[in-house]
Structure formats: structure tokens, C-alpha cells
Amino acid sequence: MTVTLAAFSVSSRTLRALASTEPSTEGTRLVRDVRRSKRLVLLRAVLDAAPATRAAEAAEHWALLEAAERHDPAAVRDVLHYPATGVWAEETLRRLHAPYGPPPDLGHLGALAVAAALRAGIAFTHILRPQHGRLVLPTLGLLRPDRSGPLTLTQRSWDPDDPAALPLHALPGGRTALDDLDPYRAPGPAQPAPVRPARRLTPKGHKRWDTQWSGALTLLQRYDTARAGETVQLLRSVVPLAGGSRSSGATLPAAAGSVLARAQAPPALAATLVHEVQHGKLTALADVLTLHTADRTPRYWAPWRSDPRPLEGLLHGAYAHLALAGYWQRAALYGARGAWAQHARVRAQVAAVLPVLRAHERLTPAGREFTDAMGAAEHAMDELPPPADQHATARRAVDRERRAWCEAHPELAPFTHG
């Protein structure tokens, strides 16, 4: 089911700031406001769509949420806007409107309410039924009760030091959680291999992530302070990918404010975070502004993929790689080993597809302004070029790859040039 947001006004200044991929106060505010608005609309839609037989239960859960909000609005907002809550809300809304299939998990609304009440510190008594011997408390963790059946919860029910509790792991240096617990941390019961979330990590696994996360943030703060701040502001959770995943990272629209990422060395993790945060920004913008009216037919060459991409995928890829080109340029200026080569390579990839994007006939006026601003940001990188002829060499290499791709996909060759 489609959820429609109220109208947002996006100024030309904000649009162009977002298009550049450079962090800005206006852009960050818009992304966060859009995410919050969409989440509230989704939650309201779930409540309104609850069947009559469950309406009283849903109303009871909602009443507890309201009581918690009156005492501590910030705590309740954090629970309701936690990324996994969005996955649950979208999945539940689909199930409520589907004639067949598994029943909606309306009981999770109670888990949200209890988590909010616990964090708000209010007195309450609420009854919930654990699923498979576990009760998830979003933003807090899991409870593993020692008996089956309904569980009566109060303010004293959650103790992170209790053996029955599995607290959500907090990554160092901010409010970002490493979520390997919430059943809704990624959409669907079984994701394809590239985006399949890992199971609960061991303490050693958590420590490894702490080290890699701290190292990645240190590099971001050293090379690109603004992007480091943007990452912390826009990223509420990181979901570790299962071992053997082919992807180093992924962003799923339903889980706004989260990325799935593979455990990796700090330099690679920093680049993954820069890349994935851009996908989240562009997704939020697309929720309130139509940039193009093209269909989803995969017909375009993308230097970072072997398969043809639809225009939407090409736009997302170019946008994320434009940010990476800027990040590697700054890293290179600080003397990071191999950064100039990374910058030249990624910038050449972006430069190769920008003409296709900017000339596309299905762009809206906003989309044309957006892609023009992307082009201006790419051209501005000429002010600090890599040494020798690295950029020209990278562009020649990308051109060879394009010719090879066109030979392998002759029917799509006309779509590779703007």
C-alpha cells in the first residue's frame, strides 16, 4: 500500500545542496523531517487499518505510547523512529491489506509501547506475548523469559544486567546501535545473500565491530569532518551482514536511518558509510519530490555494476559515487595512501554517466536542476586535481569498460551516451 506524505517545500538552495552530496544543515534537516513524517503516517495507517477484533488491543498499546510521550517525548520519538520500526510498520501495513498470507504482527505495537514506557521511566503494567520465547524491546534489546505464555511487564522488567536480557549493542562515539537482535532489522524473512543480516554476534564480534567503527569514524573526522557529523546524525543503526555476503553495504528504504554493512577494515568501512548514507538522503528526497518519470526497465550502463540498471538505479549509484569521489579527494589531500587513485577512478565513473542522467528526457524540472547541480559538483573537483595524469588515465580505463559493456549488450548501447 502506498503511503502519501504531506507536501514538503524544497527550496532550490536545499535541492542543490543535497545534489552536491555535501552535508548541509538544510539538507540534513529535510532528510530527518521527511523520515519522521513518513514514519508517523505509517504508524497512523497501521492503527487505522487494525481489524475490529484487534482494535481494542491496538488502542491500549497506543494509549501507553501517548502516556510515555507526555513524560519524555524524545525517548518515544527515538523508539518510533528507530529504523527497524519502519520495517515492521511497512510489513504490517502490507499484511493488513493482503487477502492471503501470514497475519500481521500487531503485537509488536505493544513492544514499541513498552520500550517507550521503559525509556520514559513511567510507571505502567502491560501484558505482551513473547514470540518463540523472546520479546523484542526496540532500541533496548530482547527479553528471554523463563516461562511461556503472556508476560506482565512493568518498569522493573528491564535490567540490562539480568541474564534474561540481551541488550542492544551500542557502537562507540555516538547514538548508533549495532543491531543484530531486532527481528525487523531488515525487511523480509529471508533476504538474498548480498543483504542477509547476520545472526546475533558473539562478544568477540561486537568488540571487532567496536574497533572497526571507531577506526572508521576517526578517519572520517580526520579527512572529512562534515561527513563524519552527517553520518552520526543520519545513521541510527548498523545491521551487520552475514558472513559470505557479496555486498560490502546496502541501504533499504523501509529501514530509514540504517545501513547493512559487512565487517571490514576502517578505511573500507568509512567509504561504505559515506556511500550508503547518500542512498538514504536521496530516498528521503524522492519521498517528497519527483525527480524523473522513467520506468524501472534496466537498460543503462553503470561502471560500478555488471548488470544494466534502470534510471533510478543509475541516479542512486551516480549520487553515492559522487560523494565517494569527494571523500577520496579530501583523504588524498591529507596524504591517505592510494586515495588519489580511488578518487580518480570513482570520479571518472561518475563523469561517464552524468551526461546520460542530465540529458534524460524523463527528468522533471526538479530532476534537471538536481542532476545539473551534481554535474557542477563533479566539475568543481577540477580545482584540486590528482597529480600527474591519473584522472585522464582513469577516464580512458572507464571508456574501455564502457565499450566492452556495449559490445556485450549491443541492444542497450544507445542508452550509454547522453
Structural descriptors:
418 residues, alpha+beta, three-stranded antiparallel beta sheet, 53% helix
Helix content: 40-55%
Strand order of the largest sheet: 6-7-8-10-9
Tell me the total number of β-strands: 10
Could you give the order of the helices and strands?
HHHHHHEEEEEEEHHEEEHHHHH
Poorly predicted sequence stretches spanning 5 or more consecutive residues = none
What characteristic shape results from the CA principal axes? globular
Secondary-structure-based class equals: alpha+beta
Largest sheet at a glance? 5 strands, mixed
Radius of gyration: 23 Å
**Approximate strand percentage:** 5-15%
Overall mean pLDDT score? Answer: 93
How many helices does DSSP assign?
Answer: 13
- CA-to-CA gap between the ends? 35 Å
Question: Quick recap of the structure?
Answer:
The chain contains 13 helices and ten strands. By secondary structure, the chain is an alpha+beta fold. The protein has a five-stranded mixed sheet, with helices on one face. It has a three-stranded antiparallel sheet with strand order 2-3-5. It has a two-stranded antiparallel sheet with strand order 1-4.
